[in-house]
């Protein structure tokens, strides 16, 4: 069996928070938006239909759980969930806390300026909060 690996483009701008039964939960290093990325820990997945039916149900539940927890943690107005894969083909699902007046509101976060990395202590605190929320 081939081992799971995280695409370098995902690992270069995220921090690993924790592993759920199916997915790895990453925190995007962009202080403008509280942002999680869930990556199924299975090799060679690019599309949602590549995931086995059982894992797909679990993955959906993990996305719902991450969405609920992120909304509770941040008190945000809206949660955006997206699966694009045009730049990074490895299957990954974005869960993003959004608020009126944020750097991209009301549009999508993609293509809206450059990421603003967290200060190291703020990133560590956010990752710790994400871990604790699960």
Automatic annotation (TrEMBL):
Where is the HIT domain positioned along the sequence? 36-105
Q: Which organism is it from?
A: Rhizomicrobium palustre
List, in alphabetical order, the Gene Ontology terms for molecular function in this entry: hydrolase activity
Gene3D superfamilies noted in UniProt: HIT-like
What is the protein named? Diadenosine tetraphosphate (Ap4A) HIT family hydrolase
Domain of life assignment: Bacteria
Alphabetically sorted, this entry's keywords are: Hydrolase
The protein's matches in Pfam families, at most eight in alphabetical order, are given as:
HIT
- Does the keyword field hold Transcription? no
Please give the InterPro entries that the UniProt record associates with this protein. Answer: HIT-like (IPR011146), HIT-like_sf (IPR036265), HIT_Hint (IPR026026)
């Amino acid at each position: 069996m081939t081992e799971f690996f995280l695409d370098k483009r995902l690992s270069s701008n995220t921090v690993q928070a924790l592993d759920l039964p199916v997915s790895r939960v990453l925190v995007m290093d962009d202080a403008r938006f509280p942002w999680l990325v869930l990556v199924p820990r299975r090799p060679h997945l690019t599309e949602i239909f590549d995931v086995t039916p059982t894992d797909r149900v679990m993955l959906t539940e993990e996305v719902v759980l991450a969405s609920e927890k992120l909304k509770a943690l941040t008190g945000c107005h809206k949660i955006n969930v997206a699966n694009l894969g045009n730049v990074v083909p490895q299957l990954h699902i974005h869960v993003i806390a959004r608020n009126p007046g944020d750097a991209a509101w009301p549009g999508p976060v993609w293509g809206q300026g450059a990421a603003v990395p967290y200060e190291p202590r703020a990133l560590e605190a956010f990752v710790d909060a994400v871990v604790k929320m699960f």
